[in-house]
């Protein structure tokens, strides 16, 4: 037992009180207080037996050591008192011996030169390091060698990430195309889609079965309410395959839906139909048709030349020109690639600034139409001072300033999609980070929580932020 009661019971059982001997301990048992008496006896010459009636422990008249007057004897405390400090005794303090500094190492030139490699790796002792560094101040050849070795060590210890820079592929292709222009060039407006599909395919390359079935939650805004849909990594690729099929149909390619009927010719309707038609949940096998279709799309727009950008791609509820549809598909490919990377806990960088700027420009050009549609549905507040203007005329304007990657400024007309933004009619100013604005447009950031700098008409700013969030869809 470790409690106080356990110790008390143990003392009573042993019958130990004061300085009396413990039962069963034998004559050879020695306690701390007995040791103290023995020490005193050795100093005074007393054998400690005492005489009859003096209250000693050997007195037969008082075997327990009581005083003759019947009072309890004075015993040393069972808990020893703290020792007195040597500073309180008046005695001189001991002199501390300070360590003698060691003499610096004196090494030959060849030995110091042999230590340069260990010095560059910080593997020398303190004495050797001091000797080498003193030598580097007087020997130019060894100083040059030490500088070269330190540079080599820096290459061995790379602190940066092993992931490739998102813009590396674009720079390599630009360098190759500058040296040897292609016979059939790809339109500039198709390069973001080509780059983002290649980046996503590189992310999927080493996925195992566990990663392909990792849960992913698709998020978007619908009528100012956050909406989500649960699927898997393979389900996300199936979603991209079915929606990219809208562009494939516009170019005269095969529809990946095949004979599967969709409830509505919208991205959500096609995706739900594709998921329902699968007898089993999508697996890694969906990667091959998605990648082949992305290659076919890029190849087809390259063969048709720049004229194909005028084609229209029907999304069910709206229509986009082909060059804007390819930007839209590149944007959604990046957004869902981030969803996949988040599901498998892997970092994923934004697109290159040049491509990100084009995606932001597309969203800024679509914002006036979305804002007008929300106003017709009663979702946008009727702003004070709103007035209709003729097509192409200036009207009330919000200045959208995008900072960081893909930055720039856009003038958003507030009263009519046909109006033109004008700096003279500016009523509000919003500043957002480029990646933050794209995540707002993707429905991943609530409008009320967007980190935006705001100045001017609060109602106009709120309407534009909510219109940006309603650009998102499944």
List unreliable stretches of 5+ residues: 1-65
Given helix and strand content, the structural type is alpha+beta
The order of strands across the largest sheet is 6-5-7-8
Strand content: 5-15%
Tell me the radius of gyration.
Answer: 43 Å
Query: Into which percent range does the helicity of residues fall?
Result: 40-55%
The SSE string, one letter per element, is HHHHHHHHHEEHHHEEHHEEEHEH
Task: Describe the sheet with the most strands.
Answer: 4 strands, mixed
What's the end-to-end separation, in Å? 67 Å
> What's the rounded overall pLDDT mean?
80
Describe what this molecule looks like in 3D:
By secondary structure, the chain is α+β, with helices and mostly antiparallel strands. The protein is 43% helix and 12% strand. It contains 16 helices and eight strands. It has helices spanning 4-14, 32-44, 109-114, 116-120, 126-136, 140-156, 168-179, 191-204, 209-212, 233-250, 267-277, 287-304, 322-343, 353-376, 434-441, 458-469, and strands spanning 215-222, 225-232, 312-314, 319-321, 394-403, 408-413, 420-433, 453-456. It has a four-stranded mixed β-sheet. A two-stranded antiparallel ribbon has the order 1-2. A two-stranded antiparallel ribbon has the order 3-4. Strand 1 (215-222) and strand 2 (225-232) form a beta hairpin. Helix 8 packs antiparallel against helix 12, helix 10 packs across helix 11 and helix 13 (322-343) packs across helix 14. The radius of gyration is 43 Å and the shape is elongated. The relative contact order is 0.07. Mean pLDDT is 80; it is low at 1-65.
